[in-house]
Design goal:
By secondary structure, the protein is an alpha/beta fold. It has 18 helices and 24 strands.
Length: 565
């Protein structure tokens, strides 16, 4: 890239200004708890509700606004809770409804909001609804997506070419009912049929059940899949993918994702939640729509979702991405968010490698810094606050069905187990996660040095940096500030927020080399600014001053500066 082009990009930034926030989640961080891996209270090696309750002071100390708990409902655990056999009860693995009530009560006493996973696309095949549907017992006969076989020369075939996200046909034959049922995920997760008025109401009743128990909102799983085209047409093939037959990405999923009825459904849930007592409920949707289909993501906003997850930091950007890639992606999202809504930035989750793996250890703080300084909601995953890393697990240790389905030669390419290993609280048995030496997934062996207890009193640790970033996101100094994303030279990304006379600036070095930057000129900054924080390896004391006319950013370094206003 020429210097002339870089200068043009730097001097002609896109400026975004947001209106005053009115909801509890705006300009805050929300923390994802993966319950199997957060804290084990009874020594069985699996995390549980009482374990979460025992660690709520940790979340309070972080100053996050609320926490989202991945599925805790009755389940055969084929997909570790995303195959639900009872939407309104707690799986014994995690505890009881009484335990859940105790968790909610303690959270409220700490002013923490509780968000539950809502899994509307499918149930477990062990759910009583599905068992009754197989028997054609009304109204359950229509609760799932059933179709007759396509007969070709006397041979039975699936009704069409629709595929499962986990690869292979999305249709499974049921001998008792003599029909195929559709499943976007495993065969043990049959898709629910929202064209059934009875099912439509039954799932709305699930929302009522949990809001009556004090839940402050829901993260909606796999929302893009909940409706399929009623004509059941074959989906068009994508030519020349180089992928094997039956791979999900060999088809263009125009009939099984983001159907218009989906947005109507979300809007109905929004109205229903707004009618419930107990304050405004958040609705977060898992809508992997991609940068190429941003208008689909924006439709979830206008349908009623408060946080249609923005996965660009996970799915679209990586350690090979340039500052220009980041600028285009960030500006692309900010420029299209509907008026009156907030952007959001998902740092990590239970389905993808951790930021420390995607971007490298030195750059992990940078991603959270971006989520902190950019306007809107930040969504983080347990362990982000201490820089937890993926854990290598052997084939024999692998339990994730996606990894297991890939086989011993390729399991490591698809398994989600590495990012799901237990939280590392201290250097005692099983990292303080459990009193049991054996845990459902092996603890990362680096827990002896990489753990919360080791970082609590270190002012340069991931934990200390993270706490400052949470405070920054909620600070009046960047609320309602203008936002500019600026390329500084070829290898440094800058973000400039301005509110009144106060300027807050982030600079990120994308190279593993020391780079001199003329930040004052490139980013229109005051010559002397205060260091708010650096990434944990740079180790400059917060509160120090810096001359922004020219300074060096160390390899993979990042820094946030503030003017005195």
């Amino acid at each position: 890239m020429s210097r002339k082009l870089v200068l043009l990009v730097a001097l002609l930034p896109i400026i975004q200004v947001y209106s005053a926030n009115v909801n509890w989640w705006e300009d805050t961080f929300i923390y994802q708890v993966y319950p199997r891996s957060f804290k084990d209270s009874n020594g069985d090696g699996i995390g549980d509700l009482n374990g979460i309750t025992s660690k709520l002071e940790h979340l309070k100390a972080l100053n996050v606004s609320g926490f989202w708990i991945s599925p805790i409902f009755v389940s055969p655990m084929v997909d570790f809770g995303y195959d639900i056999a009872n939407f309104t009860d707690i799986d014994p693995t995690f505890g009881t409804l009484k335990d859940f009530s105790a968790l909610v009560a303690k959270a409220k006493s700490l002013n923490l909001k509780v968000i539950l996973d809502f899994v509307p696309n499918h149930s477990s095949d062990k759910h009583p609804w599905f068992q009754k549907s197989i028997q054609r017992i009304k109204p359950f006969d229509d609760y799932y997506v059933w179709r007759d076989a396509k007969m070709v020369n006397g041979t039975r075939h699936p009704p069409n070419n629709w595929l499962s996200v986990f690869h292979g046909s999305g249709w499974t034959w049921n001998e008792q009912r003599k029909q195929y049922y559709f499943h976007q995920f495993t065969p043990q997760q049959p898709d629910l049929n929202y064209r059934s008025p009875a099912l439509y109401q039954a799932m709305k009743d699930v929302l009522t059940f949990w809001t009556d128990r004090g839940v402050d909102g829901f993260r909606v799983d796999a929302i893009i899949h909940v409706f399929e085209d009623a004509r059941f047409l074959d989906e068009p093939a994508i030519p020349n993918t180089g992928l094997p037959v039956g791979h999900y990405e060999t088809l263009n999923h125009i009939y099984t994702r983001n159907q218009n009825e989906t947005y109507t459904l979300v809007n109905d849930w929004r109205k229903h939640l707004d009618s419930r007592p107990g304050g405004k409920k958040i609705l977060m949707t898992e809508s992997y729509t991609g940068l190429q289909t941003l208008p689909s993501s924006m439709k979830y906003y206008t349908a009623g979702a408060d946080v249609p997850f923005n996965f660009m930091l996970i799915s679209n950007l990586n350690n090979r991405s340039t500052p220009l890639d980041f600028k285009r992606a960030i500006d692309g999202w900010l420029n299209i968010v509907p008026a009156g809504y907030q952007a959001n930035w998902v740092v990590d989750n239970h389905d993808n490698n951790r930021a420390t793996t995607r971007f490298g250890r030195k750059r992990a703080d940078q991603i959270i810094m971006l989520a902190a300084i950019l306007p809107g909601v930040g969504v983080i995953y347990y362990g982000n606050e201490i820089g937890m890393e993926d854990t290598w697990l052997s084939w024999n240790e692998t339990v994730d069905p996606v990894g297991c389905n890939a086989g011993p030669e390729k399991y490591y390419l698809t398994s989600r187990d590495p990012e799901r290993t237990p939280m590392q609280w201290n250097n005692s048995t099983s990292a303080g996660f459990s009193t049991n030496k054996t845990t459902w997934l092996r603890v990362n062996p680096n827990y002896k040095t990489l753990n919360l207890a080791a970082q609590l009193n270190d002012k340069y640790s991931h934990y200390s940096v993270f706490k400052r970033l949470v405070d920054l996101k909620m600070s009046s100094k960047i609320k309602n500030a203008s936002t500019e994303v600026i390329i500084v030279g070829e290898h440094v990304l800058g973000v400039r927020r301005k509110s009144g006379n106060v300027i807050t600036a982030l600079l990120i070095n994308f190279r593993d080399l020391t780079i001199p930057v003329y930040a004052a000129g490139w980013m229109n900054l005051p010559e002397i600014m205060t260091i708010y924080t650096t990434n944990h390896e740079w180790m400059i004391p917060p509160g120090s001053t810096l001359n922004t006319t020219l300074f060096n950013i160390p390899p993979s370094g990042s820094i946030i500066l503030q003017s005195n206003g």
